[in-house]
Design goal:
Layout lengths: L8 E2 L4 E2 H9 L9 H20 L6 H25 L13 H31 L14 H22 L8
Antiparallel strand pairs: 1-2
Helix pairs in contact: 2-3, 2-5, 3-5, 4-5
Length: 173
């Protein structure tokens, strides 16, 4: 009787061991492993995040909430696709990566957090410039989309930087 080994879940990284190992060992050709399509994904994610931040300017609360839900679904899909495109390297723990992958991931995090500082400043100024909505004194009224966009940017930036910088993978002969 052999017991099936359970895949370890890394809570802080949000990945399972089996998911990362399967992705790293995948030899099937994929367009997501080419630099051009990955860069298109990065641009698409950046535009959706910008749109999500700017829907705080929509005056109608009902339309704003529908747009917020739709854009959140799109950005979640793009985020998961980006993680897959970089073989989960941006989210994998050190014990599942080799030295080259760890160096690439760490360099991507450095650039991502520098970019996040700019995103944070832009979000802060957008928050300040937005008119208060709904006649309430709530500091964050009507700004949920701005907050969601910032949180999703914080989550996606490492994968976005890695997707932009990784070279295209050559198909195995």
């Amino acid at each position: 009787m052999t017991a099936k080994r359970r895949s370890k879940f890394f809570w802080f990284e949000g990945v399972t061991e089996a998911e990362v190992v399967r992705s790293l060992n995948d030899t099937q050709p994929s367009r997501l492993r080419q630099q051009g399509p990955r860069r298109v994904l990065v641009w698409a994610n950046a535009l959706v995040l910008l749109a999500m931040a700017l829907i705080a300017l929509v005056a109608q609360p009902k339309l704003q909430s529908y747009l917020e839900i739709a854009l959140l679904a799109v950005t979640l899909g793009l985020y998961l696709t980006l993680r897959k495109a970089v073989r989960h390297i941006s989210d994998a723990p050190n014990e599942l990566l080799d030295e080259r992958q760890i160096a690439a991931r760490d360099a991507a995090y450095t650039v991502a957090y520098r970019a996040l500082a700019f995103v944070g400043v832009a979000a802060f100024f957008l928050h300040i410039l937005l008119p208060f909505g709904g006649g309430t004194d709530d500091l964050f009224a009507g700004r949920g989309s701005l907050i969601l966009a910032f949180v999703m940017a914080a989550a996606a930036l490492p994968a976005m930087v890695l997707a932009w910088n990784l070279p295209s993978e050559q198909p195995e002969a």
